[in-house]
Amino acid sequence: MTVPTASGAAALLREALEVYGDDLQAAEALQGYARRLAEPLRVAVAGMVKAGKSTLLNAIIGEEIAPTDTGECTRIVTWYRHGHTPRITLHTTDGGHRNLPLKRVGGRLAFALDGVPAERVERLDVEWPSPALKALTLIDTPGIASLSQDVSARSVRFLTPEDSPSEADAVIYLMRHLHASDVHFLESFRDTGAGRSGTVNAIAVLSRADEVGAGRIDSLISAGTIAERYSREPNLRKLALDVLPVAGLLAQSARTLRQPDFEALQALATLDRSGRERMMLSADRFRRSAGPEGLTEAARASLLERFGLFGIRLAVVLIRSGFTEPTPLAHELVRRSGLDSLLELLERQFQSRAAVLKARTALAAVADLLHSRPRPGTEHLAASLERLEAGDHEFRELRLLAALRTAGVELAPELAAEAERLVGGRGTGACLRLGLAPGTAPDVLAAEARRCLTRWRRIAENPLTARSAAEACRVVVRSCEGVLAECAGLDRQAQSA
């Protein structure tokens, strides 16, 4: 699809700076949004206390750098950005900042606040040379609905500010069960400046999915059934793109699999099935068991901490099934954990739409500025904002996605589902929009795009089509034209290769 979105947002911010250049606070904010357009997409990881936010963040990054204990650092908003050299910067609430020492304890990064109380820390900035952070800036947030109102308020103020767009362009929201407070938070995030772009800025994760079945080997199957049911809940469907089950602890430990872990799992795999099952009836029994020879109680306790009973059971079964090398075992455990599905969804929905999500945040900032600080001579700025919001097709797609998910379009269910797919509800690539397999030949893609274009033009031009539906159809038609143009480009590339 064509993307004039980022350049249009940048031009609007420059125009706003000309108008508000004499307002130091407004100018500083606008310059920040301009820099934000050039930065990676900001994705916050949010959820209730003990939902597994930091563990999942570690799994996404592929290193254990986010603290997962209940220490004071878990009460602080922490940014994880790409940097060529590791660095931790503490920013205080009075505007000061200082670098913190880098320490590792037991292979994990340890945060020491250098004597600064957590309540005086505005945020921590962690720069880390991880490839995963090149495309995404991840933000770890304190638990929502914490027993400490101050801790909970930090997340709410950060993610859903009352008078400005959210600092996050998108959110991964973790929940162990679907509660009213989960829906309330997602509604609040949707209603911020960034969220008004539609529903493509939130993904729900059924976290700690291995605990759904009490650690049984089929736990993730049960969790998948529950996640599928949640994804069809009308209240949640309009707020989140999808609900995915993820065993975060397994994903984190598989992504950071150590040789001693693998050797301990190999030793367990030598036991007969009945012996293993007796040993793993409970965590306490596993820790205190005598076998196998050479596996100490400390080693068993380490496995429990890193993998849990579910992860140990699954790893042993996989080793006995032929995954006898560390790297293939780690990859299979990651796949089974559900992390691969989450990363794929992040790529399809967030990273592929990074430009429009960041631009929408910038437009929301200008709109809020016009509303909160009106002044003479801003008519042309308001007109530019309105033209960009109304004329940019990607914004129109996002608005249609929101309308389709809230049953606000008079289309038959099968047409509504097809429209959602064509405007990018499953991802922005041509294959995803057309519902075809990855790698489909360009000529096949083009033929399907032409068929869809003809069909939706006919529906849009039908005098019996309701007015709201006809407007939606015109958005779909424009999306089909964009896909057809993309297919032509792919065909030219294939011919020149």
Describe this structure in words.
With 497 residues, the protein is α/β, with parallel strands linked by helices. The protein folds into three domains: 40-247 and 340-351, P-loop containing nucleotide triphosphate hydrolases (Rossmann fold, 3-Layer(aba) Sandwich), CATH 3.40.50; 257-329, no CATH class; 379-496, no CATH class. The protein is built from 21 helices and eleven strands. The protein has helices spanning 5-20, 24-38, 53-61, 149-159, 180-190, 219-231, 234-237, 248-255, 259-269, 273-279, 283-288, 297-320, 326-337, 339-350, 354-372, 379-391, 393-405, 413-422, 430-434, 442-461, 467-496, and strands at residues 41-47, 78-82, 87-92, 97-100, 103-105, 108-110, 121-128, 136-140, 170-175, 202-206, 243-245. The strands form two sheets. The protein has a nine-stranded mixed sheet with strand order 4-3-7-2-8-1-9-10-11, sandwiched between helices. Strands 5-6 form a two-stranded antiparallel sheet. A hairpin with a 4-residue loop joins strand 3 (87-92) and strand 4 (97-100). The longest helix is centred in the last third of the chain and has 30 residues, at 467-496. Residues 193-199 have low confidence and may be disordered.
